[in-house]
Amino acid sequence: MNYDHFFAEAIDALRKERRYRTFAEIERDARHFPRAVWHSPGGPRDIVVWCSNDYLGMGSHPAVIEAMCGAAQARGAGAGGTRNISGNSHEIVMLERELADLHGKESGLVFTSGYISNDTGISTIVKLIPDCVVLSDELNHNSMIEGVRHGGRQKAIFRHNDLDHLEELLQAAGDRPKLIAFESVYSMDGDISPINGICDLAERYGAMTYLDEVHAVGMYGARGGGVAERDGAMHRVDVIEGTLGKAFGVVGGYITGKRVIIDAVRSYAPGFIFTTALPPAVAAAAAASVRHLKDSQAEREGQRAQVAKVKAALAAAGLPQLETPTHIVPVMVGDAKACKMASDLLLAEYGIYIQPINYPTVPRGSERLRITPTPFHDDALIAHLATALSDVWERLELPYADRVVERANSRRVALGPAPIPLPVAGG
Amino acid sequence: MNYDHFFAEAIDALRKERRYRTFAEIERDARHFPRAVWHSPGGPRDIVVWCSNDYLGMGSHPAVIEAMCGAAQARGAGAGGTRNISGNSHEIVMLERELADLHGKESGLVFTSGYISNDTGISTIVKLIPDCVVLSDELNHNSMIEGVRHGGRQKAIFRHNDLDHLEELLQAAGDRPKLIAFESVYSMDGDISPINGICDLAERYGAMTYLDEVHAVGMYGARGGGVAERDGAMHRVDVIEGTLGKAFGVVGGYITGKRVIIDAVRSYAPGFIFTTALPPAVAAAAAASVRHLKDSQAEREGQRAQVAKVKAALAAAGLPQLETPTHIVPVMVGDAKACKMASDLLLAEYGIYIQPINYPTVPRGSERLRITPTPFHDDALIAHLATALSDVWERLELPYADRVVERANSRRVALGPAPIPLPVAGG
Prior knowledge:
Two copies of one chain form a homodimer.
Chain A: H1 4-16, E1 26-28, E2 35-40, E3 43-49, H2 62-75, H3 90-102, E4 107-111, H4 114-127, E5 133-137, H5 142-151, E6 154-158, H6 163-173, E7 178-183, H7 195-205, E8 208-212, H8 227-230, E9 239-243, E10 253-257, H9 259-268, H10 270-273, H11 280-295, H12 298-316, E11 329-332, H13 336-350, E12 352-353, E13 356-357, E14 368-371, H14 379-395, H15 401-415
Parallel strand pairs in A: 3-12, 5-6, 5-7, 7-8, 8-9
Antiparallel strand pairs in A: 1-2, 2-3, 4-10, 9-10, 11-14, 13-14
Domain Aminotransferase class I/classII large (chains A, B): 46-389
Family (chains A, B): Belongs to the class-II pyridoxal-phosphate-dependent aminotransferase family.
Subunit structure (chains A, B): Homodimer.
């Protein structure tokens, strides 16, 4: 039997829908962040990265790099085993204490990625609560969706950030145990959830809360504890999940919470138990980053200032940005092919790298360029970005502010979160 | 509603069964591998690690550490994004080429861990094949079990390494598409699967093959391609999965295969798409390790020599080792409490760290100390190990060779693979 055609057809389907992805191969330059070299078809080219989730440039911070290299030299390149079998390095234990402290919780637990922390974290928590109903925001990240699915419990999806709808669903769940799973900053639209409002409902209806702060940790709150810290809500949330791979600039994920919850996840989660621990070098680098951002306000203030300037420059140019209260600046295109063309043109002719965001990461019709200014995108780079975008918008005759943003907003809720549409039934 | 008791009860259940796990906190010493410092309750203590999966000590190899530090300094501590959104570093692209070459395949794809490569790799492959039946060895690792489960296809479990049983199941599956999922070296018993025999059956019955070589890559075959390389079977296997976190000494996982298969997984696997890429520093370190082991035989020969010496020393002492054709040396205890006591005594009084392996990693009644000698466990360390084990066996009155090994062997097949028994129904 020939199996190739199954895979070839799956790829063809993506090409036909113009959502086959090619990855831009780049070499970031730690000494000149956010600059990088792009391995273009015609050879190496200098570019500026405008779409990184290394939101504060901490991946290039000397203290972080030094911590990584120091631990690699002293301890070696890897952990050598699972956490249980010789992989429980001093560095990862220290990192977990740093993270628990960051969120004002008793315990922290580090996973190989934010993805796996949500997937195995949520699924394990709900498996440990008999008859639990999971209430999940419709725009939750794929890793949370998978966690809820793998938990095998009944789920109820509430409309994005809609407290009334959440309350209806909580009422409908009656006396059953309930877990509310939501994010603070939603990555693609850059909006923020009403954490205290959700905690009010959780208290009123006796629900447990699980908050994903991956796009907020390091950047919001006086010590970088996230939006829950900023809003004075950290102590109200049962489990706070975060990542070491975005504003902290390294890689890995974690959860924090009461000791008894974290210990149960530690003891039961297959995606934690049966996997090699993160290297001491990674843990040391992440801990250095977390520690630095607990004290230093310079990166957060620098980011806010440059984000405001980018938003002002794009507004002045009449470009269709989605208004956000965060550091995420989506510029709406609304069409997969046009979005890819704009991105290609920016990269090839202006040395500006902004990956097109197409379905399934965002709903069809809301394709966009997602811009993430860091403290290191200086005023000259911002001016160049605004000029380049304006040029590209004219050359490709892309729609301006009024039309696209409206369309995207009207479609977003109707379409809901984007699952991976595998071209088979029963998957 | 109070949720704490759900978690507290789950932990209590583990304590009652004597399988609550505590992790030994250690600092590996890269300059004196396999030596480490154990953060004992009474303060720091010098120990020798005898249970690491850094099988060849490559995590401490200067070329590997240098590659990690060089890339960290040049590129920063992290990748800065998913593979699609600015995280596709030159280093990870080079690593994938190195891995494809290692296994003689067209393409390679790197994941954040071997766990996730199996979980999202297998589930995506079988979702792309309508009506697929998965034939899975009963002793497959948890990550493969989860991958099969998350794929949602019909599965048939064949008795461990049993070609007759596999053939029966292949016949029963008739004309439907079939995937055979198996490992080369089984981690806990240290035995090896009949790869060519399985490939014969796959060809006869038109099945696709997926082989996990995580406990073999780097160590078997002339270039470290694994048991399939050693047995001349690499070209017969459709997908070869491996890890960068064991013999290669770093962290991360991968699959290799035909371009069309790998490209489909790249395009559809949620655990690949929606997660931050491994840092360039990790990719560079792993590539240096893979490259080194393609040429150098010294590590493999050194390992074989020291493994043979350990086996001989334990045999001379009459200790109940499970005979294996590999580098894995299980010494059987057969009881969770005794296994933990032996491990504690070895660590506290002899400075020998061998984590007890209890249920659910192995079936109840087959609890063991799993010893993994590296090229760097010299003759003096081996002599010390044999003496210490003999002492501990006498002091704790543990059973000797004849009794335990028989019991373990007779129970193994009957019990089958150990699922995580979450204390709830419907999980």
